[in-house]
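A.,

Following up on our hallway conversation. Structure tokens first:
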């Protein structure tokens, strides 16, 4: 999602400098400035159809610093965990996060979103993520609408952040970085996506903005790291390296112990952000499993402090970090993937001829340029896994559907002088 979040930070900086100080100089955002928090429960922000077709009212709880007189306040919207089959806005971890950051001067909202799927499989889990993303975007638009009309909650819409825990983090990541229909082509057709309501959805508050300035990812993952691109908004991630529910690196995510699909966990997403020049603050809960802060006050303190450091940096504050980042674990191999331009690249003609026939029902042939020395030719699926490596001494590649299966793949050739050619092939 290419958004000019720097503009928002610049405006905030100008406002702060006009008073001769940053907000953190007075303790706002960096410390517990407000001892009490006012909670407004069950505020309706929209409605939509559940996975069974019934209509669901969508509500959120709002947490505000009691006695705050600021008229333009940053907002954090939190989404709970629950594997997309359960959970609520009153889960203890998102409640604690909402209270703690409201005490520091933020307005927080904990949202309910549509949950449930049946049967529990990859197809329905993808649809569940789409529904959750649509609802989160409707909640963002709810606050944009309020700011443009009644202005009850005094939100600075140039200072909106989204985050979540587990399934809620998966929701926030996709709300921020899944922004083109073609990115989901390996999971569902455009027609199916549009049948669900499209990327933006129809959960409410149409016509208002949904831009955010940052993402807080607690033990979440993306369907593919390739969704995050240069120019996207900053990211703060925390994840246990022994997580058996949502992978720390690349791996299979589980729902109720059932392996559903490959996801790129926080470690991979961080590496992609670094590669693309996107700010990414990453902390590993070393030796910890899934959402360790849920039942541990010590882990929760670490979590609050690390998020605090990320957010005050975006507020222009220079306070010392309370919880410095640590060194990521495990090795990550990234592949060059861009889901929206996977067709034949004319520049690739230097290494390979155009594949034919493509798409195909059984076999695809690609001729290699005899005069070019190649170091490798790999067939890669859209999860970034190498499914086949080709003999580079041959003059042609013959791909077989019987060997690699139906689906969309990338053929990547690398020449001895470092040139890279990629092209999409499809077996129906």
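Then the amino acids I'd put at each of the 428 positions:
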């Amino acid at each position: 999602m290419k958004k000019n979040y720097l503009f928002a930070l610049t405006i905030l900086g100008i406002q702060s400098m006009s008073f001769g100080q940053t907000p953190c100089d007075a303790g706002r955002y960096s410390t517990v400035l407000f001892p009490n928090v006012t909670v407004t429960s069950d505020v309706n922000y929209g409605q939509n159809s559940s996975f069974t077709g019934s209509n669901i009212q969508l509500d959120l709880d709002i947490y505000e610093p009691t006695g705050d007189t600021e008229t333009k306040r940053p907002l954090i919207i939190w989404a709970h965990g629950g594997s997309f089959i359960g959970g609520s806005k009153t889960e203890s971890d998102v409640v604690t996060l909402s209270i703690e950051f409201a005490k520091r001067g933020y307005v927080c909202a904990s949202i309910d979103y549509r949950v449930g799927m049946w049967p529990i499989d990859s197809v329905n889990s993808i649809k569940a993520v789409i529904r959750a993303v649509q609802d989160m975007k409707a909640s963002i638009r709810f606050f944009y609408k309020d700011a443009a009309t009644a202005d009850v909650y005094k939100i600075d819409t140039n200072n909106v952040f989204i985050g979540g825990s587990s399934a809620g983090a998966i929701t926030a990541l996709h709300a921020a970085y899944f922004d083109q229909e073609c990115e989901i082509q390996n999971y569902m057709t455009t027609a199916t996506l549009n049948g669900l309501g499209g990327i933006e959805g129809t959960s409410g508050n149409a016509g208002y903005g949904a831009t955010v300035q940052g993402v807080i990812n607690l033990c979440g993952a993306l369907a593919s790291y390739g969704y995050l691109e240069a120019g996207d908004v900053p990211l703060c991630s925390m994840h246990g390296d022994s997580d058996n529910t949502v992978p720390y690196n690349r791996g299979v995510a589980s729902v109720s112990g059932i392996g559903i699909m490959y996801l790129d966990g926080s470690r991979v997403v961080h590496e992609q952000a670094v590669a693309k020049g996107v700010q990414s603050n990453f902390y590993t809960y070393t030796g910890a499993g899934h959402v360790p802060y849920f039942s541990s006050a010590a882990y929760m303190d670490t979590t609050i402090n690390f998020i605090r450091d990320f957010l005050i940096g975006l507020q222009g504050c220079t306070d010392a970090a309370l919880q410095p980042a640590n060194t990521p674990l495990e090795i990550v191999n990234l592949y060059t993937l861009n889901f929206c331009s996977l067709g034949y690249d004319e520049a690739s003609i230097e290494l390979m001829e155009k594949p034919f026939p493509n798409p195909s029902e059984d076999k695809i042939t690609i001729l290699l340029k005899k005069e070019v020395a190649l170091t490798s030719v790999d067939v890669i699926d859209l999860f970034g896994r190498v499914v086949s490596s080709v003999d580079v001494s041959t003059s042609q590649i013959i791909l077989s559907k019987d060997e690699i299966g139906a689906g969309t793949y990338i053929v990547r050739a690398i020449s001895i002088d470092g040139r890279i050619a990629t092209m999409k092939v499809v077996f129906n």
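The chain has a mean pLDDT of 89. Curious whether your intuition agrees with the design.

B.
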